[in-house]
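pasting for ref
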Amino acid sequence: MNLSDSQTRGILIQSVNLYSKEWVHWRTSLDDQLDLSIECLAMNPNQRQQQILSELAKRYPLLVVRGIHLFTRTLKQDGSFSKYSDIEKRGRVNNLLNNEPMDARTSFGILKVRVTHWGYSFTEPLWTSVLEIIDSIPKEVLYACGIEMGLLDLLNLFMSLIAVQVEVGVSSYISILKSKLSQSLLIFKSSNRSEFDRWTASNLKELERKGSVSLLLSAYGMAQELLVDDKEII
């Protein structure tokens, strides 16, 4: 099959969109390689691991886009509570040190506890690497098939992390992440404007009281280019 032919690629993309629910459960010999590569990236998010996954994304875009939920799951786990030993992990941002212990009354007496939330800690190189890998998927695949394969869930997770970091007052830790995410969203906007507009008009379940995604982008200083109407650009 000649995948360099645009008509052939279009038929494949259309087929994946039509049968996305069935397609996401299929398995191939490359799925184990993808799983292992993502696991290695999570343990040690370095340039080599990122490059391996980026090459997979370029060579097998339909297979990697089907595995977007694996990246989402990995990042959710990374943003969960970690032990203090994780502070030594390269690139690990840990805001638990500023969280003073509180008294908790239990049946065993008064205990000292620290209240933590998802997103207090995260590994910055891992999150930026995932963006780079996802951006390696050809945009005609990512912003067509990806919509049905969990791309929006992944983007929502990035927005949730940024929201938490801003709330705890350490937005400086996410400046690089915000910049890379903005670049990815610009490609999203230019590749599939209708889906981009639908996403920015939606409310994130975890941040529903904060308003739509477009309001969040404005609040976090990411809206200057993203939300400008193309007709306004001279």
